[in-house]
């Protein structure tokens, strides 16, 4: 894997994210934060691969723990965001 | 790993995630946006399992299911009041997951890692560790399990600086050592970063929490992104970076709204710490002396006056603060809102960006009791309206409506953007007491001629007002 491509991906994603997130009104900042929080559980992808190919029992246990924690983060985050967003109603 | 199917899938997942965020910019499309994000994540997990041919491993599936069930169970139970600590807690779990992934990768795949992977692994451990312990302390403070006051130890700044240096040295040394040393370094980095996160978060006061959790949110994304550098996964790098950017934006907005520099928060120079001395120098009886003439009027008389004033008003603006959340008064606020709207009045809400304990906290609480979001106005939009408003009703807000921010040079809140409540023709204050807010600066609004002060639990006060009307 090329470090320059990785850095490019990092910078491009940061800029794109920055641009799009700046447009989210402060009205929705709490759900925005909890939604982004759910996304940070994306680390589960790394956890799955690392655990699958781990040999030592200790590493496997740590890996499964990482999967569980990341999924609590992902599922809890998306569901609570959904709950919040469904509460926002217009009077028109 | 060369460019192929997995990279294309990664690009698609990232684009769909970005589209989801795009849809979050309007309340009409936001539910779809969030679900799109969730769908992208589900797709990403499936792609990783299929691509690596590990979908038939019961251990992984069990981990995924257990985590999902716990997450789902937690998310349906949490109340809107406790959303800030819930978000902080989940944030911490994400950070710990990144730390563990990096540890496992260093333990198991050391021989296949290059210098960049090794450095990223150590950094992911450090950022993940700081995120985890910092978030736990923040969640504890928000949930009042730990004192909300900033805890400053002797030599706190020096200790923080030393830990930062130790972490930097460990991270830099990581790539140059053999397997055994590298693992020792990784474990040491994990321990030091956990200690640093806790030490960093205990010195931050309750009112600075909106900034702290925004910053920790940014860290958790950064940890995931750095983890992506360690395991060679573009999807992790990109999505983690997006989260990092989101946290950064919110941190900046919160700092601006509180008139604070990020450095001040990080180094523990909180407004509260400055404020304590201001409060200490002002004897108790001085606080709110200006309100004395008003308090000679009985509660009954004041309630009647409020009912008359509200009844005669055409334009009313509610100003909610954290006190509303604490006394769970939002239901009563909605009741009074309905009553006034029913009598043909123009009723709006003024939302200060840092009212509450996390960005946008007030909006969620009001949405929960079915206040239409078109009635919620941001600071810049509502401030020109106060001068033509008959009554401003403050529910549990202090610093964000304190006119001292404009006039009292040298006080901690001088220069902080506030809601111009004092320009309204009448002001009704439903606050617990006249004590200053977190800034420690007295609020001259309480003593003004056109202010009617109702002290005590805001929920009970509003019930009495509704009863009078």
Description:
The complex is a heterodimer of chains A (about 90) and B (about 475). Chain A has about 90 residues and is an all-alpha fold. Chain A has a domain at about 25-85. In chain A, about 75% of the residues lie in helices and about 0% in strands. Chain A contains four helices and no strands. In chain A, α2 (about 30-40) runs antiparallel to α4. The longest helix of chain A has about 30 residues, at about 55-85. Chain A starts with a helix and ends in a 5-residue tail after the last helix. With about 475 residues, chain B is α/β, with parallel strands linked by helices. Chain B has two domains: about 80-270, no CATH class; about 285-469, TPP-binding domain (Rossmann fold). Helix content of chain B is about 60%, strand content about 5%. Chain B is built from 19 helices and six strands. A six-stranded parallel β-sheet of chain B has the order 3-2-1-4-5-6. In chain B, β2, α16 (about 360-370) and β3 (about 375-380) form a beta-alpha-beta unit. In chain B, α1 packs parallel to α9. The radius of gyration of chain B is 25 Å and the shape is elongated.
What kind of sheet is the major sheet of chain B? 6 strands, parallel
Major pleated sheet of chain A: none
Number of strands of chain A: 0
Order of helices and strands of chain A: HHHH
Helix share, percent of chain A: over 70%
Alpha carbon gap, first and last residue of chain B: 71 Å
Question: How many alpha or pi helices of chain A?
Answer: 4
Rg of chain B: 25 Å
Shape category of chain A: flat
Label the structural class of chain B: alpha/beta
Helix tally of chain B?
19
Average pLDDT of chain A, rounded to a whole number, is 92
- Extract low-pLDDT stretches of chain B: 271-294
β-strand amount of chain A: under 5%
Going across the major beta sheet of chain B, what is the strand order? 3-2-1-4-5-6
